């Protein structure tokens, strides 16, 4: 994130984490210089690009400051679902009955240390198990909307922030900003290189 964008976000006290409706989470942000006048070419590219983002199902909302203009992007659940399938993302399946009995215990540093220090010569060593919490082991399967019964897709945390960011980035890098015959006018990276946008970044940290 550029320093100016970062400062503007700090001044807003985190109010940009959601759309104006207070419900939809902001997954990605585009920023451009609103002071540049008569840059019709950049305006045209942004307009086409953002229209194509909407066509792909992304929801956008402008946020204007005196100098920097922002485009907030939200990835709706149905878009995440469609692109998870297209990107062949591995997702956790619903827990099976007696799952723990059919899965080999996952190797962990904490478990290894506990076993190592159980030896008689290390009886004075105390392992803080809270520092090495056992991670829950989940079975994964390539996401498929046709096999929705395999997944707990209705759970509010099923599509994590990191997955929504990945989907947003995937769409942004493939959206066109020119005419069909302008084959190189595609993708966010080129728009950033050409200074059509100043910056682009996920608003949350992408942690699960």
UniProtKB/TrEMBL annotation:
GO cellular component, one term: plasma membrane
Segments forming domain Anoctamin dimerisation: 19-207
A GO molecular-function descriptor: chloride channel activity
Pfam families associated with the record: Anoct_dimer (PF16178)
Signal peptide span: none
InterPro entries xref list: Anoct_dimer, Anoctamin
Entry protein name: Anoctamin-5
Species of the source: Culex pipiens
């Amino acid at each position: 994130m550029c320093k100016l964008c970062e400062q503007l976000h700090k001044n807003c006290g985190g109010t940009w984490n959601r759309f104006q409706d207070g419900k939809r989470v902001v997954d990605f942000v585009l920023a451009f210089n609103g002071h540049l006048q008569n840059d019709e070419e950049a305006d045209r590219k942004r307009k086409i690009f953002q229209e194509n983002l909407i066509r792909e199902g992304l929801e956008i909302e402008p946020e204007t400051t005196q100098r920097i203009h922002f485009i907030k992007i939200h990835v709706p659940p149905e878009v995440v679902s469609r692109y998870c399938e297209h990107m062949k993302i591995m997702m956790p399946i619903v827990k099976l009955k007696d799952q723990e009995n059919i899965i080999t215990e996952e190797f962990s540093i904490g478990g290894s240390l506990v076993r190592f220090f159980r030896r008689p010569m290390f009886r004075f060593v105390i392992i803080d198990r809270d520092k090495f919490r056992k991670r829950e082991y989940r079975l994964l399967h390539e996401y498929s909307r046709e096999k929705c019964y395999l997944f707990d897709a209705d759970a509010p945390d099923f599509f994590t922030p990191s997955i929504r960011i990945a989907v947003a980035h995937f769409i942004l890098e493939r959206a066109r900003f020119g005419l069909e015959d302008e084959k190189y006018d595609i993708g966010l990276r080129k728009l950033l290189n050409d200074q059509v946008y100043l910056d682009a970044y996920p608003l949350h940290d992408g942690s699960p």
